[in-house]
Design a protein that fits this description.
- This protein is α/β, with parallel strands linked by helices and about 425 residues long.
- It folds into 2 domains: about 5-225, Rossmann fold (3-Layer(aba) Sandwich); about 235-430, Rossmann fold (3-Layer(aba) Sandwich).
- It contains 16 helices and 16 strands.
- It is globular.
């Protein structure tokens, strides 16, 4: 990754490379900030917070590789909020790939700054310009923004970046995937060269590495989970299913206990709407979230899901990152993602903050190559479940040989699959989430 990057790990933190941090009280935060942290119910700093906050408070640039759900928003917000000066104009700009993520950054910033007079605002598309112009005109200290809308304000001469001392690029890999590199470079040309920059990304492909070289100076590099790993506490299962039986299988699974708060990913907006109609017809409380929905509808859908107003949220990949809802019991890949990295981000919506969760993927015959790519990224084989009334293969497959992933001598498919015919009724009920 280059000589300019310095790796901080849990080991060298314990060996004295960085001060040992066991609580937020060890982080030299102000009493007001500590009170806000306590009010949020944060008891212990997460690994990324333990590693990022001390150098962040020292003014160091940071390149952080961290999964979603690891506490990275607090990792960059706490140093920024501790250093920003109320009444000194726009000082901190956080660029995010999606409206939802920017709004969540705003919510956390407001909560963490409750003991001060610092002001925060959100600048995103899909809503009116008026309140955003007012926030910029009055010198709001922290702005969380999507690149496209923020550039609109820059071009209209409404954004004064001359006092920006903190620039955060959140989910940098996603922003590059979405084609925001030109907008990011436009912002870079306007912010002061003397600033603190923090770049966070779930992965570090070549484009993100090149961007980190461009925007940071002698940064601390923090990696709390290697690329392609999933959060602990996720029970991953793959159901073999005929394409025309996917909705039936989902309804069947939703009838089991424990499926309390379920996020379902579809590949297309049309598919999401069709599934919404089917689930409503089954009497299941459900809402939908995709880019064809107006912003107010998407916000309402997310709010209803987060507060328990609906049990199921059907979404396209607009929700795979930046959707931080506690208590999601199940993530369902109704359609296998085409990009293996998206699998990691999708299922990362469950098992947040140390909780347990279940990730279920529906595998049709045409998607087998995509699942192979996911398993190659993960470096392991995912458990297959074959239920006779849904299975696209139509014939039972023996359980895998000790998890080795090799073909079983009596199986023509390999990967190590498990057939419903080889399970006892009690085991089948367990896999379906039923109590015996």
């Amino acid at each position: 990754m280059g000589e300019h990057l310095r790796l901080i790990s849990e080991m060298n933190a314990e060996d004295g490379g960085t001060p040992e941090v066991t609580s937020f009280g060890d982080l030299s935060l102000s009493p007001e900030t500590l009170a806000a942290v306590e009010a949020l119910g944060w008891s212990l700093p997460t690994p990324v917070q333990r590693l990022a906050i001390p150098p962040g408070l020292e003014g160091r640039d940071i390149v952080g590789i961290a999964q979603t759900g690891t506490g990275k928003t607090g990792a960059f917000l706490l140093p920024v909020l501790e250093s920003a000066v109320p009444g000194d104009g726009l000082q901190a700009l956080v660029l995010c790939p999606t409206r939802e993520l920017a709004q969540q950054v705003l919510g956390e910033a407001v909560a963490l700054s409750r003991g001060s007079t610092l002001r925060s605002a959100c600048i995103v598309g899909g809503v009116g310009y008026g309140p955003q112009r007012a926030a910029l005109a009055t010198g709001t200290e922290l702005i969380a923004a999507t690149p496209g809308r923020f550039i609109d304000h820059m071009r209209r001469g409404q954004a004064d970046l001359s006092r920006v001392g903190f620039l955060v690029l959140d989910e940098a890999d996603r922003m590059l995937d979405m084609g925001f590199r030109p907008q990011i470079e436009s912002v870079l040309r306007r912010v002061p060269r003397e600033r603190q920059t923090m770049l966070f990304s779930a992965t570090m492909p070549h484009g993100v590495h090149a961007l980190s070289l461009q925007v940071t100076r002698d940064p601390v590099r923090i990696e709390v989970a290697p690329s392609g790993t999933t959060a602990e506490g996720i029970d991953e299962r793959v159901y073999s299913v005929k394409p025309g039986k996917k909705a039936d299988l989902l309804v069947r699974l939703l009838s089991g206990p424990g499926w309390d708060q379920v996020l379902v990913f579809t590949r297309t907006k049309r598919g999401a709407d069709m599934l919404l109609t089917r689930l409503k017809g089954e009497g299941i409380s459900v809402d939908v979230m995709h880019s064809d929905r107006q912003m107010r509808h998407r916000v309402r859908a997310l709010d209803r899901f987060a507060t328990g107003g609906v049990r199921v949220l059907v979404a396209t990949d607009i929700a795979q990152r930046g959707l931080d809802v506690e208590g999601i019991s199940h993530v369902v890949n109704y359609d296998i993602p085409l990009d293996p990295g998206d699998y990691v981000h999708r299922i990362g919506r469950t098992a947040r903050a140390g909780a347990a969760g279940t990730a279920v993927s529906f595998l049709t015959a045409p998607d087998l190559a995509y699942l192979k790519s996911i398993e190659l990224l993960l470096g392991r084989t995912l458990e297959r479940i074959h239920l006779p009334e849904f299975d696209y293969a139509g014939t039972p497959v023996e359980p895998r040989d000790g998890g080795s992933g090799r073909r079983h001598p009596r199986s023509g498919r390999g990967f190590g699959s498990k057939s419903a015919d080889s399970l006892s009724p009690e085991e089948l009920d367990r896999l379906l989430g039923r109590r015996s």
